[in-house]
Amino acid sequence: MPDVRSAGPVASEPGASPDTLHRVEELESEAPARQLSGWSGRLAQLLAFGLACYALYWVVGIVQPQIYRVSFLLVALVLTFLVYPARRRGPPRVTVVDWIAIGLTVAALAWPVFDFDQFVYRAATPLPADLVLGGVTILLVLDATRRTVGWILPATASAFLLYAYYGPLLDLVGLSLIAHRGYAPDRLIGTLYMTLEGIFGVPLDVAATYIILFTIYGAVLEYSGAGRFFVQWAMAAIGRSGGGAGPGRTVATAGYLIGCVSGSGVANTVMLGAVSWPMLRRAGYGADVGGAILAASGIGAIFAPPAMGAAAFLIAEFLAVSYLDVIVMALVPALLYYLAVFLTIEADSRRLGTRAVRVATESWRELTMRSGYHFTSLFAIAVLMIRGMTAFRAVFWATVLAVALSFLDRASALSPRRLAAALAAGGRGVLPVAATTATAGIIVGVVTLTGLGLKIAGLIVTLAGGSLPLTVVYAALAVWVLGLAVPVTASYIIAAVMIAPALTQVGVADFAAHMFIFYYAVLSEVSPPTALSPFAAAAITGGNPFRTTMLAWRYTLPAFVVPFAFTLTPEGLGLLLRGSVASVVWTSATAALGVAAVAAGAGGWLVQRASRLERGAIVAGGLLLLYAGAGTDLAGAVLVGLALALHVGRVRRARLHPVS
Predict the structure, then answer these.
(1) Is 580 exposed, middle or buried (0-12, 13-18, 19+ CB in 10 A)?
(2) 294: nearest Cα among 538, 550, 23
(3) Cα 181 to Cα 167: distance, rounded to the nearest angstrom
(4) Cα–Cα 20 to 30 A to 279, which of 130, 223, 441, 479?
(5) Are 120 and 194 in contact (CB under 8 A)?
């Protein structure tokens, strides 16, 4: 029986509306994926299923890396041209242009596979056929990226290609700092198409290994009913506590759990909004505030272990560390992020006078007893990696476990037909990332070939005068601006080769530099003017997109500050669980107090509504606490204590002498 003890209106049982996936695709893509039928639909389904099976086979079988990456991209591009139309208002069927693109894809990418033994040795002296097919491959990759994530990233990659060719001319226009000798088409195509330094480099490798495996795992969880269970469980466990803050806390918790299924900030926001916005509205949250909570909750899972976002897998590859190391480094910042979101929700609920909502669902105990097995595979990933298993094998066996456990509930058991559909969904889910990482590989290849990364890094350090704080600020601005133009994954990749070297040059540890870039790349999703997650949330709640974005910025404000804490001082590395136990505990504790202070000040509520002076003092104190160091910790604690004393004194005086 549902628990009816909490007060307030009743929210309906959660369930995503039928057009939720269409909304996700419309918000994330230049053109929404078309719903194919007939033999073309069956072909797309078969190819997506085959791509997923191929990725799973790669975990347990042996495939030569270059052959695997080329063949993976071949299938991914064919699927992209089948599923994504060339124009936003394109026809619902596969057109002649699409079939031509598919034919060219097969020709251009089958060539390296069938001629592999000679192909890999011709990078320095490509044949005319290599040049033609390499040029075609570059154009196809750019077009697939335009179809899936928009025109900005392909335009950026095109600009890099022009830079590689016209490098000597930059001297003539006063840009000698980034000028170079220039590279002919044969050298460019040889590097980008015929080696593992371009299209088939590290970014695509991560998409074809880490990312698709987690995409398949998420699809299996979704098809086995885990997504719905996570929202219900969060509503039952948290929605009935905390008074008016309960619904907001529920959304934040459900956002994290759904993120383990989705892995995309926009997708999390849309799926979360589809099932939880009615509850927030009934609780008294306005459209703008509700949208901000949805957006902040939607991107939270990208920061948080164990799944995190696609860029987190790239960190492991760039640093040549295990994915478990990345999870460990992300743990404390993730906890700080959710601490900030929960406290800001608490402040807003008190300020707005929201109320508890009675949720028409089973109690959390009943839900856990009935469907708590959905948590098992999540724990299995962490346990298997802690025991020394690679992330690939850990998620592979977690997927197998999730499939087996689905048979505990006959209604959501993954029968052969249902499992095939889940695998096909996993295969389709990687298409935008595959195209994005292939295009990012073009950019990385050009940066490596021309030495642009070191030049940009040197320029940033020079502009900062060698100052660590200024270099970090400039790096944050650069990643933020980059993230406004291109997707998170591409933003991280470009920044990793161009901006991370600037941070390491001024003494920032390489792992801290990459985590810094990762956080700012993700935070671009809630940053104006192209804040995708808040815009998606506003589309669901009917709120004002700009106001929703600014409120979401307030919810995520501490997340913008925490990366500075682990880059500006050696003590700050404790937030990444690096250093002695005492250092880690002290730095994490003071950072938690700092985040709480900043969240309280930004929310404008302590015991009661805070004055401007109190808010300013507590925010300043919180920022000082986040800057790891004995002196700043003491000064921050004093300021926070002073702000609290002023506030409590003012509240007591108001109670003793109420205004009539």
Answers:
(1) exposed
(2) 538
(3) 6
(4) 223
(5) yes
CB of 319 within 8 A of CB of 388? no
CB within 8 Å of 387: residues ≥ 6 apart: none
Domain boundary among 381, 406, 428: 428
User: In the chain, how many domains are there?
Assistant: 2
Q: Tell me the pLDDT tens digit for each residue of 444-463.
A: 999 989 988 888 888 899 88
The answer to whether position 249 is within a domain reads yes
Is residue 244 a part of any domain in this protein?
Answer: yes
CA–CA gap between residue 262 and residue 52 (Å, rounded):
16
Distance CA 256, CA 307 (A): 10
φ, ψ of residue 605 to 5 degrees: the values are -140, 125
Residues 16, 385: Cα–Cα separation, whole Å: 33
Beta-strand pair 10-11/358-359 = parallel
Query: Rounded CA gap, 626 and 632, in Å?
Result: 8
256: tokens are 């994290």
Q: How far is CA 181 from CA 19, 163, 165, 367, 620, in A?
A: 52, 11, 9, 65, 50
Instruction: Look at the alpha carbons of 405, 408, 412, 418 in this order and tell me if their dihedral is positive or negative.
Output: positive
Nearest to 514 by CA among 636, 349, 361, 333: 333
Q: Can you tell me the distance from the alpha carbon of 378 to that of 217, in angstroms, rounded to the nearest whole number?
A: 10
At a CB cut-off of 8 Å and minimum separation 6, what does 314 contact? 202, 203, 206, 489, 492, 493, 496
Name the DSSP letter for residue 32: P
Point out the domain boundary residue: 428, 450, 470: 428
Of 592, 616, 604, the C-alpha closest to 554 is 604
- Residues of the domain holding 293: 205-428
* CA pair distance 213, 207, nearest whole angstrom: 9
pLDDT higher than 70, residue 423: yes
CA 394, 521, 437, 392: dihedral to nearest 10 degrees? -10
Q: Give the confidence band of 364 by pLDDT, cuts at 50, 70, 90.
A: confident
Cα–Cα dist 514/519, whole Å: 9
- Going by C-alpha positions, the residue among 517, 522, 601 that lies closest to residue 269 is 522
- Please state, rounded to an integer, the average pLDDT across all residues of the chain: 86
> C-alpha angle 118/121/127, rounded to 5°?
75
Mean pLDDT of 31-40: 80
Instruction: Determine how many CB atoms are found less than 10 A away from the CB of residue 485.
Output: 16
Stated pTM of the model: 0.84
Integer-rounded Cα Rg, in Å, for the chain is 25
Residue 347 domain-assigned (yes or no): yes
Report whether the peptide linkage leading into residue 469 is cis, meaning its omega lies within 30 degrees of zero.
no
- As a whole number of angstroms, the distance between CA 220 and CA 98 comes to 30
Helix segments in 116-208, DSSP class H: 116-119, 128-149, 152-166, 185-194, 202-206
Pure H helices in 224-307: 226-238, 246-262, 265-283, 287-303
* Residue 52 located in a structural domain: no
Which residue bears the tokens 């600009």? 159
244 with 350: CB under 8 angstroms? Answer: yes
